[in-house]
Amino acid sequence: xxxxxxxxxxxxxxxxxxxxxxxxxxxxxxxxxxxxxxxxxxxxxxxxxxxxxxxxxxxxxxxxxxxxxxxxxxxxxxxxxxxxxxxxxxxxxxxxxxxxxxxxxxxxxxxxxxxxxxxxxxxxxxxxxxxxxxxxxxxxxxxxxxxxxxxxxxxxxxxxxxxxxxxxxxxxxxxxxxxxxxxxxxxx
Length: 188
Description:
The protein is of the alpha+beta class. 21% of the residues lie in helices and 32% in strands.
């Protein structure tokens, strides 16, 4: 039986640097494993655009959105649908945002809902990402995860809130609610 090999983030970067992996490979590094990213469908892309528009309209100065771009965590380099990060347009020209740069991560989920809840939730909680949203297209709701455990044996978020059409979801950056966004503005 064939075994599996885990890669460190630096090994993953080297594979990209020397051309073994390219953007055509459609992979991301999750907990040391190279994982295929799922294909996207029109409702996913529509919700991604709606979320981008809603967040862009309320972002305070010195915060930016990164769309389907890598972030660097201790054991993973996922590409969340949206990352709300500190800095300006040139802050990440030589590196990807890391844990301390991230205010909120957003995954738009349909066929990846279980993975986004379980695997990405565990990865983000382990990395102390303070706020993680799942735009759940299956159940037409936004799930907001907060109070990450950090690097413990079973990383998880201690608090989860669900927002449905008619509700407004708070955008919290550095512990401060900077805006509330109607769920109807995000769901397609």
